[in-house]
Structures are given as C-alpha cells and as structure tokens.
C-alpha cells in the first residue's frame, strides 16, 4: 500500500488511498475534486522517495466530502485577586476530504 506525506494549511498529513481527514478550510465545493501538489514524501512498500523540499511531479488527489466547524474551544484568562476574568470561544473551520489517489 502506498502512502504520502502532504502539506496543506501549514500542517503535514500522512495519507493513504481511502483515508478521510480534516484539513484547514479549502476553497472548493462539496463533491469537487482537489489536488495537493505539495507532496513531501512518497512511500510504496520498501521504496521511499523524499523530496527536496517536494517530490517533483507527485500529486495527491482527493474529493471534498463536507465543510464544517469544529467543536468550540473555550479560552479563559483569569487573574486571581485582581477582579479580572475574560472568556472567549473559538470554532475553527475545516474541510473534510477523502483521498482518492496518489500519483508519484
């Protein structure tokens, strides 16, 4: 089974065909296919190809399943004995993609 390490949204992901993962929000419609061209590593069995910094000509194709927002993260800043308390919430946007192919 072949795998690849891709970079998108400032993060790196190890993917295989059929994987479903959540990445930073992409500008694509649901059901559309997207290509990730920043492939840092491609492995198949015992052979591994490492890019410098990316593997030339390698792409990973995926299909957008849905867009959404993650669970709320609560941010609380508290200073004891100072009558200071600040609360804030944050929900990060994401795109859920399914890997359909790895072209090395």
From TrEMBL:
This chain's protein is named Large ribosomal subunit protein bL21
Whom does it interact with, and what assembly results?
Answer: Part of the 50S ribosomal subunit. Contacts protein L20.
Q: Which gene encodes it?
A: rplU
User: Mind telling me which InterPro entries this protein's record contains?
Assistant: bL21-like, bL21-like_sf, Ribosomal_bL21, Ribosomal_bL21_CS
The record's listing under PROSITE patterns reads: RIBOSOMAL_L21
Its Gene Ontology molecular function terms?
rRNA binding; structural constituent of ribosome
User: What HAMAP family does the database record attribute to this sequence?
Assistant: Ribosomal_bL21 (MF_01363)
Keyword annotations from UniProtKB, A to Z: Ribonucleoprotein, Ribosomal protein, RNA-binding, rRNA-binding
Family as reported in the entry's similarity comment: Belongs to the bacterial ribosomal protein bL21 family.
Please give an example of a GO cellular component term from this record: ribonucleoprotein complex
Q: What is the lineage of its organism?
A: Bacteria, Pseudomonadati, Pseudomonadota, Gammaproteobacteria, Lysobacterales
Protein function: This protein binds to 23S rRNA in the presence of protein L20.
The answer, when asked if RNA-binding is one of the entry's keywords, is: yes
Please list the GO biological process terms of this entry.
translation
């Amino acid at each position: 089974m072949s795998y690849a390490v891709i970079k998108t949204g400032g993060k790196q992901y190890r993917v295989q065909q059929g994987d479903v993962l959540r990445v930073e929000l992409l500008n694509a419609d649901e059901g559309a296919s997207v290509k990730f061209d920043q492939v840092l590593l491609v492995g198949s069995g015992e052979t591994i190809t490492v890019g410098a910094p990316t593997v030339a000509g390698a792409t990973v194709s995926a299909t957008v399943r849905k867009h959404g927002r993650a669970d709320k993260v609560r941010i609380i800043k508290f200073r004891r004995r100072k009558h200071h308390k600040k609360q804030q919430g944050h929900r990060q946007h994401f795109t859920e993609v399914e890997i359909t192919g790895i072209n090395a």
